[in-house]
Each structure stands twice: as structure tokens, then as C-alpha cells.
Design a protein that fits this description.
This protein has 261 residues and is α/β, with parallel strands linked by helices. It contains nine helices and nine strands. α3 packs across α7. One of its GO terms (molecular function) is methyltransferase activity.
Length: 261
């Protein structure tokens, strides 16, 4: 299999043994991790719900570097990851006339390409972070896409209660569930079927493990594929693991969900 080397799928990154070994191999990352740990403890004490907690994380990260806040350590990587998402969806069913809901749109790493490709008014991006949405608007101006009239909206949950029934042909969540506890994922799966148009689909990525499910701090969550597939099926959805995504240079995995209607 060609492409980006896959992460070790049986590693428990929350275990003390793994963290000690990792620190020994990467001593330069110890101090940044300790800073993250201190921030995690402070924010968990201050905010009891995950959305408020992670909104504060994004405010901290976006204040330093909006592109790094969405997981890109350089502008070149920001561009490459956005192009990868765009190309994959274009090759797997996204058409210009489709209406798209982009959950966790961030600063439009992929979103600006979707906006450019879709018909005017057909892109709807939501995010929990007002700070990253300010950066998203700057991206919109940078690529001169104002005439495409995208919607960029802050959201406090994933119930989609402010969106119409059966409206979106494509729903997309890249690197959202990798930062979400299971109850947040279940909330999204409980409600996404309502906003999907007939024949529509919902693609989401996640950090996959084949060992014990775990999380590192309250920022990074690792799930088994069967856990998320079963969760979708309990909500009356059909879920398919996207094997061909695994060949691309990205460390996460992808599942496609449909209503089956």
C-alpha cells in the first residue's frame, strides 16, 4: 500500500509507558506537551462541557497560528490537506450543483476550494470557534470568493436544529470527530439524517485504533471502526469504511454514512 505511513493502530497514546518512551525519542516535544497538559487541566476545571472546552482550545491555538490550529504545521501542508479533501470528495460524488454542509469548517483549509467549485450559496460552513471563523473570512477574501455567498456560522452543538430538513447533498466533517467524545459524535449521527437530502452522504474522518479506545488529554480521541459504524447503525444509518482513503497521505481514517433511503 502506497501513501503516507499509517499510525500504529494498537498503540495506547494515553498510557504512561507510551508517553515515557515517546518523550525519550522526542525530547524536544516534552515542554510543549507539558504546556498542553497544563492548559488542559485549567480549561477542564473552567469549562464542564466539551464544546466550551474545545472552543477555548481553539481560541488559544488560533491566536498563535490559525493554520496550525486546524492541524497544519506549514502553509504548504495547509494547502495540501485542503486539496486532498477536495479532490477526494470531487472524485467520490461531489458535484457543483450540490448543497454542502461543512462541519468544523475551520479557516477554510478545504472550504475555499469547495466554495469555488460549488454554485453560489451552496456552501454552508459551521464551527464552534468564533476565532477560527474570523480567520475563515480572511481566507474568503484572500481567494476573492465573496461573490459565491457562502454561509459561515458559529454553532454550539451538532443538532443542526437551525438547518432545514433534507437540504444537504453532502455533509462533511474532517478532523472533527478526532477531537470529540463519543456523546458528541452520537449527537451528530442522531441528527444528520434529518438534514441530508435523498441520496446524500455524510463523510467524516476519525483517529482509528485497533486496540483500546482512548483519548490524550481532552483534545485527541481514538476509536475503533466498529464502534462508530455500530453507533451510526443504531441511529438508522448505513456506514461504510472508505478503504481508498487509507492510501492517501493523511493519518486519519474515513467513514461514509447514508440514510439508506
Amino acid at each position: 500500500m502506497q501513501g503516507h505511513p499509517r499510525k500504529k493502530l494498537n498503540v495506547n497514546r494515553a498510557s504512561i509507558v507510551h508517553q515515557v518512551r515517546y518523550a525519550a525519542r522526542h525530547p524536544e516535544r516534552v515542554v510543549p506537551y507539558l504546556r498542553r497538559t497544563a492548559r488542559d487541566l485549567w480549561l477542564r476545571a473552567k469549562y464542564r462541557d466539551h464544546v466550551s472546552y474545545y472552543r477555548a482550545v481553539m481560541a488559544s491555538d488560533a491566536g498563535r497560528n490559525p493554520e496550525a490550529a486546524v492541524g497544519s504545521q506549514s502553509h504548504e501542508r495547509w494547502l495540501a490537506l485542503g486539496l486532498m479533501q477536495f479532490d477526494y470528495l470531487k472524485q467520490h460524488g461531489l458535484a457543483p450543483e450540490h448543497r454542502m454542509l461543512d462541519i468544523g469548517c475551520g479557516n477554510l483549509r478545504a472550504g475555499w476550494r469547495f466554495i469555488d467549485y460549488l454554485e453560489p450559496g451552496h456552501y454552508y460552513g459551521i464551527d464552534i470557534s468564533p476565532d477560527i471563523l474570523v480567520s475563515a473570512k480572511r481566507t474568503l477574501v484572500t481567494y476573492d470568493l465573496q461573490a459565491k455567498l457562502p454561509y459561515l456560522t458559529i454553532s454550539g452543538d451538532l443538532t443542526f436544529d437551525f438547518l432545514p430538513d433534507g437540504h444537504f447533498d453532502v455533509v462533511h466533517a474532517h478532523s472533527v470527530f478526532s477531537h470529540s467524545p463519543i456523546e458528541v459524535i452520537d449527537e451528530a449521527l442522531s441528527h444528520v439524517g434529518r438534514v441530508l437530502a435523498p441520496g446524500g452522504f455524510f463523510d467524516f474522518t476519525f483517529d482509528r485504533t485497533e486496540g483500546r479506545e482512548h483519548h490524550v488529554l481532552h483534545e485527541d480521541f481514538y476509536y475503533r471502526t466498529e464502534t462508530l459504524v455500530s453507533l451510526a447503525e443504531r441511529r438508522g444509518l448505513k456506514a461504510q469504511f472508505m478503504e481508498d482513503w487509507e492510501r492517501l497521505p493523511h493519518g486519519q481514517s474515513k467513514i461514509r454514512v447514508t440514510t439508506g433511503g
